[in-house]
Amino acid sequence: MAAIPVQNYTLVITGAPYSSQAPQTALLFAEAAITAGHTVDRVFLYGDGVHLASALVTPPSDESHWPALWAKFLTDNAIPGIACIASALRRGLVNESEQKRYALPASNLLDPFTIAGLGEWVEGTMTSSRVIYFHGGG
Amino acid sequence: MAAIPVQNYTLVITGAPYSSQAPQTALLFAEAAITAGHTVDRVFLYGDGVHLASALVTPPSDESHWPALWAKFLTDNAIPGIACIASALRRGLVNESEQKRYALPASNLLDPFTIAGLGEWVEGTMTSSRVIYFHGGG
Amino acid sequence: MSKSTLIVIDQPPYGAWAGREALDMAFSLAAFDQRVSLLFMGAGVNWLRKSQETSEIEQKSVEKNLSAAPVFGVEKLYADAAACDQYSLFPESMIAGVVITESSSELIRQHSHTAFAG
Amino acid sequence: MSKSTLIVIDQPPYGAWAGREALDMAFSLAAFDQRVSLLFMGAGVNWLRKSQETSEIEQKSVEKNLSAAPVFGVEKLYADAAACDQYSLFPESMIAGVVITESSSELIRQHSHTAFAG
Amino acid sequence: MTHIHVLHILNKAPSHPRSVECLSALMPGDTLLLIENAVLAVASLNEYRAGIPVFALAPDVIARGLGECSENTTLVDFAAMVDLTAQAQQIISW
Amino acid sequence: MTHIHVLHILNKAPSHPRSVECLSALMPGDTLLLIENAVLAVASLNEYRAGIPVFALAPDVIARGLGECSENTTLVDFAAMVDLTAQAQQIISW
Fold first, then answer.
1. What is the ipTM, given to two decimal places?
2. pLDDT tens profile E20-40
3. Residues of D in Cβ contact (< 8 Å) with E64
4. How far lies B16's CA from each of A66, A92, D84, F68, in Å?
5. Better pLDDT: A2 or B83
6. Cys bridge to B20: A73, B136, C72, D80, which one at CB 3.0-4.6 A?
7. CA distance, residue C63 to nearest chain B CA (Å)
8. Residue B98 pLDDT greater than 60, yes or no
9. Where are the alpha helices (DSSP H) in chain C?
10. In this model, does residue F70 exceed pLDDT 80?
11. Strand B39-45 and strand B8-13: pairing?
């Protein structure tokens, strides 16, 4: 069997947790990729996927806490998790700087996620060897 | 032409703003219902529909602000707008009391929306003469 | 027609949450002593398959929730016959207590109120 | 195969936001001088119809956004031929500059990277 | 207005599985109201069951550039949509 | 492992329009990987284009009670899914 080339992945998640299976499939995929010796360049949250970066998600105690599980994985592996700013603002996900800029009553971005523009996704497509999308199932 | 019987509507919104058209169709419907002399008993947000009650939604300035438009309509017409608590907690929508109970860093519920259980929907089905659902379009 | 609700689930389990939340609607009606039944149609009939083992996708099995439906007062679980054929879902591969219906359209008319999973 | 991206929109306009956000992806690639084209297939071809008047649904017209695509550096707008037939979308009812493709499958293969609207 | 037994409100595009389910559930005495993405049916090659009145929400039709294609469909505004829901005995939101 | 030209990752149920689009886009040399709701294809009455290897993600198959029905489909775990994506020249997430 031929050796499997080592890849550097950009993962894009467009489905929300507790609406779609996308964040959970993406996490199990990302863990398997790291275990196999590949690297994950970045995880980009787009569209409804930005809800994964909410600090206020509170599932029932017998359901998986996907934002917390993702936050731990990103921290443990020093992988940037970036929510698209345009998607995030439309859907009510903001950090402290957006809170100030738009005079909002609170911020709700979960650490270590950050908020940035689509340029982060473009850069991912240019620098990584594989881009995989995890969409909502519909 | 026969006279149209006056109805008391419960509206249920299950599609999120900026993901589906459900909140905007529901608002234009609700305004037309009030104009025609009907009443709206309550508006119940369920599933992804709870995102309509977020105080942090910040659309671009040239796009309609559906949470703000809905909040104004509810206030002007003294109609209760209720987000389902189970849907809301899973999706990161919480009021101050849930913030305290779960030791969360912030709350993000937009006034005059409230958070309550599915019993509010059940009561709507029992007391109103018409229940209309506004789902995501898929 | 006495007041009764039909909750319709036409989306498969696990890929989305709308079905779970529709099930909660049915349980909630039953908890308030309202008449309610469930109809599974389209890809939604896959909720009814036996032997769902969900630990590897880290979700709760919907099979357990569904088997509790009669206990909580949900009157009937219906499955659309054509959809069962489409997904090779035969009586022996189905959880207990499901009623197969040849006409979902008639069933909807027999209930005063119908709500689809979002 | 030189690096190039095909953004695919197969959902109709206005009922969902995924298509708008896919368009933003195309504009963003173009802004960074990356090669990008758009493919409309399935119900997504309805993005391409002329005379969209959206003031009564209080959304911005996607027609205007799309007609700006060449200006922003998006290389081509493709429409799937079979989908245009399905939705009675004829050349005279379509915005200018759209290339009809008989094989969306071949088109996907001609691009090194494909991204669907979510 | 005529008596409406069941009013079916459909908001899904013709290719969506629930649209297919809705069209096959229509029976004589029913009325179909197309809103949002479902108004694309006026441009697509669907056949309706004969004798079912079909309405389409005008703001959605016009937004999609379909004002000229709606031959067998009556366009209604939100006020008329409200009237339809007030008159129907039963309403199903697909 | 054999060479993979295009790996198609499908996560939509068989009745979803994008599933139909995906299946009709398959060509010789391609590989199909079914995940999430798409694994229901192993129970439904679909026909695949001959000569296309079809894989299905085992955790999704087992969750849906379909472990016994997957005759023409090879079950893979997440590690094997990663291998498929690492070996494919081009990947399309439908």
1. 0.97
2. 999 999 999 999 999 999 999
3. 12-14, 46, 49, 52
4. 20, 11, 29, 38
5. B83
6. B136
7. 20
8. yes
9. 18-31, 62-67, 69-72, 81-86, 104-109
10. no
11. parallel
- pLDDT: which is higher, C1 or D117: D117
Q: Are chains A and F touching, using the cut-off of 8 Å on CB pairs and a minimum of 3 such pairs? A: yes
Cα-Cα end-to-end distance for chain C: 25
Question: Which stretches of chain E sit within 8 Å of chain B by CB?
Answer: 1, 9, 11-13, 16, 18, 35-37, 57, 59, 77-79, 81-83, 85-87, 91, 93-94
State pLDDT tens for residues E71-81. Answer: 789 999 999 99
Q: Quickly list H helices, A1-138.
A: 22-35, 66-76, 85-90, 96-101, 119-127
Check CB contact under 8 Å for E94 and C104.
Answer: no
Amino acid A3: pLDDT: 83
Q: Does domain E4-93 have CATH number 3.40.1260.10?
A: yes
Domain boundaries, chain A: 8-56+64-134
CA–CA separation, E94 vs E54, rounded Å?
Answer: 15
D27 CA to centre of own chain: 11
Q: Stretch B71-96: mean pLDDT, rounded? A: 98
Confidence class for position F2, pLDDT limits 50, 70, 90 = low
In this prediction, the residues of chain A whose per-residue pLDDT falls under 50 are none
- With bands split at pLDDT 50, 70 and 90, how would you rate the model's confidence at D40? very high
- Give the residue-averaged pLDDT of D28-50: 97
What pLDDT, on a 0 to 100 scale, did the predictor assign at position C24?
97
Q: Can you name the residues that pair with D94 across neighbouring β-strands?
A: D49
Sort out which chain A residues have CB atoms less than 8 A from B92's CB and list them: 51, 54-58, 67, 108
pLDDT at F69: 75
**CA distance linking residue D77 with residue D36, whole number of Å:** 10
Q: Residues of chain C whose C-beta is under 8 A from some C-beta in E?
A: 10, 41-43, 104-105, 108-109, 112-116
What is the distance in angstroms between the Cα of E11 and the nearest Cα belonging to chain C? 12
Domains and CATH numbers, chain C: 5-116 (3.40.1260.10)
Q: Which band of pLDDT confidence, cut at 50, 70 and 90, is reported for residue E2?
A: low
Q: Is the pLDDT of residue F72 over 60?
A: yes
3-state secondary structure chain F: CCCCCEEEEECCCCCCHHHHHHHHHCCCCCEEEECHHHHHHHCCCCCCCCCCCEEEEHHHHHHCCCCCCCCCCEEECHHHHHHHHHHCCEEEEC
d(CA D65, CA C50) in angstroms, rounded, equals 49
Catalytic, A112? Answer no
Three-class DSSP category at C99: strand
Sheet containing E31-34, strands listed edge to edge, beginning at the edge strand earlier in sequence: E74-76, E54-57, E31-34, E6-10, E90-93
List chain E residues with CB under 8 Å of C10: 17-18, 21
B117 part of contact set with chain D, CB < 8 Å? no
Rounded Cα gap, residues E14 and B113, in angstroms: 34
| String of DSSP letters for A40-69 | EEEEEE-GGGGGGGBTT----TTS--HHHH
Both tokens assigned to A25: 């499939």
CATH architecture of the region B8-56+64-134: 3-Layer(aba) Sandwich (3.40)
pLDDT band at F67 (very low <50, low <70, confident <90, very high): confident
Tokens of D32: 């960074």
Answer yes or no: do B132 and E9 touch at CB < 8 A: yes
Torsion over CA: D44, D49, D53, D56 (sign): negative
